[in-house]
């Protein structure tokens, strides 16, 4: 987690996954990123999982995600 001014930012490289394969959830000041690539035959061929804790002064309703064209996932949250 990186702090920039009044914003916290998490950056993850998920370039090997398609947007529908990526799920981001938040709960109790934790952000969880999960991604799973499924082959045409139904087998899982690649996975990604990362969880981190956001600081206590973070506004949980301000969490947002952006996926760049290069496959970088940017998660931001604002301080209260």
TrEMBL record:
InterPro entries: A-crystallin/Hsp20_dom, HSP20-like_chaperone
Superkingdom of source: Eukaryota
Alphabetized PROSITE patterns for the sequence: SHSP (PS01031)
Transmembrane segments: none
Domain SHSP: 1-80
Similarity annotation: Belongs to the small heat shock protein (HSP20) family.
PANTHER family in the record: HEAT SHOCK PROTEIN BETA-7-RELATED (PTHR46907), HEAT SHOCK PROTEIN FAMILY B (SMALL) MEMBER 7 (PTHR46907:SF1)
The protein's name: HSPB7 protein
Source organism phylogeny: Eukaryota, Metazoa, Chordata, Craniata, Vertebrata
Gene coding for it: Hspb7_1
């Amino acid at each position: 987690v990186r702090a920039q001014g009044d914003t916290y930012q998490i950056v993850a490289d998920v370039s090997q996954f398609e947007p529908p394969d990526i799920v981001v959830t938040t709960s109790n000041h934790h952000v969880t990123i999960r991604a799973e690539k499924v082959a045409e035959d139904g087998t899982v061929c690649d996975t990604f999982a990362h969880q981190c804790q956001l600081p206590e002064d973070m506004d949980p309703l301000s969490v947002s995600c952006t996926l760049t064209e290069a496959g970088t996932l940017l998660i931001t949250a604002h301080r209260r």
